[in-house]
Design goal:
heterodimer, A: alpha+beta, Chemotaxis protein chec, 7-stranded antiparallel β-sheet, B: alpha/beta, Rossmann fold, 5-stranded parallel β-sheet, 5 helices, 5 strands, globular
């Protein structure tokens, strides 16, 4: 049962901003409110938080964006073809670091799960998401509490 | 010197190794382990001079890896590189015998500061 308060969107936003700058060496920009955010064939990563608040943080982005995120993290040349395992690994690690920051800021008795990554073609509802811009493409972030 | 890097993320192991170079610790032998259980085995076979370990890993967590090492009488210098840097976890790490805890995301400067006392 979830008894604690869900992570504040500003807290999740700040955790992503830190990762964008420190791990991906990319300026953090929110998605412009007046632009429709579309998703093609995508990658979805999620990590669970358990304790005073129970739920998960979910990141969804286009496969090409995921590949670019992995390349930025590894410092790989643009022409280098990264294996899918490394792309999934990198996106999961972004969420792992965000989850660690959020867990630390929430305080209380919490545990962080291991990131899971899968392919998806279903974009989350934009109204329920924090959307970050990755070089002009959307990265959807949801904070999803366990069902009551 | 030989450094064992334990993390279940291959990408993160590569980033830790790159950051070691950026922090001025080039030329050391690097051994990789994919979780705490693999790390524990490789400490026995590879006899590293330093272990850099993630905390949250399948099979054996980093803190259990450290506790098992110390429980078996192994005193290899050990530091965490982990996404969780709360005071509670720093205290747990220190109490178990860790020299330092570096929180992700990290910089080469943080690596230099933490590792210089060990690697010189």
């Amino acid at each position: 049962m979830t008894t604690g308060t869900a992570p504040d969107p500003a807290l999740v936003n700040a955790a992503f901003e830190q990762v964008w700058g420190s791990m991906l060496f990319t300026a953090f920009e929110p998605w412009p409110a007046d632009t429709v955010a579309n998703l093609g064939s995508g990658v979805q990563a999620q990590i669970e938080l358990r304790g005073d608040w129970n739920g998960r943080i979910v990141l969804t982005c286009d496969s090409e964006v995921a590949t670019q995120i992995a390349g930025a993290m590894l410092g790989a040349p643009a022409e280098e073809v990264l294996p899918d395992d490394d792309v999934h690994d990198a996106v999961g690690e972004v969420l792992n670091v965000v989850g660690g920051s959020v867990k630390g800021a929430l305080g209380g008795v919490m545990s962080l799960g291991l990131p899971g990554v899968s392919e998806t073609t279903n974009p989350p509802s934009a109204e329920d998401c924090l959307i970050i811009s990755w070089h002009g493409a959307p990265v959807f972030v949801e904070v999803v509490p366990d069902a009551a | 010197m030989k450094i064992l890097v334990a993390d279940d993320s291959r990408v993160m192991r590569q980033i830790v190794i790159r950051t070691l170079r950026q922090a001025g610790f080039s030329g050391h032998d690097i051994v990789e382990a994919e979780d705490g259980a693999d790390g524990f085995d490789k400490v026995q076979t590879e006899k590293p001079d330093l272990v850099l370990s993630d905390w949250n890993m399948p099979n054996k967590t980093g803190i259990d890896f450290l506790r098992d090492l110390r429980g078996s009488g192994n005193q290899t210098p050990f530091g965490f590189v982990t996404s969780e840097g709360s005071e509670e976890m720093r205290t747990l790490a220190s109490d178990a015998g860790a020299l330092f805890l570096i929180a992700k995301p990290f910089t080469a400067e943080v690596f230099e500061e933490a590792l210089t006392p060990v690697l010189g």
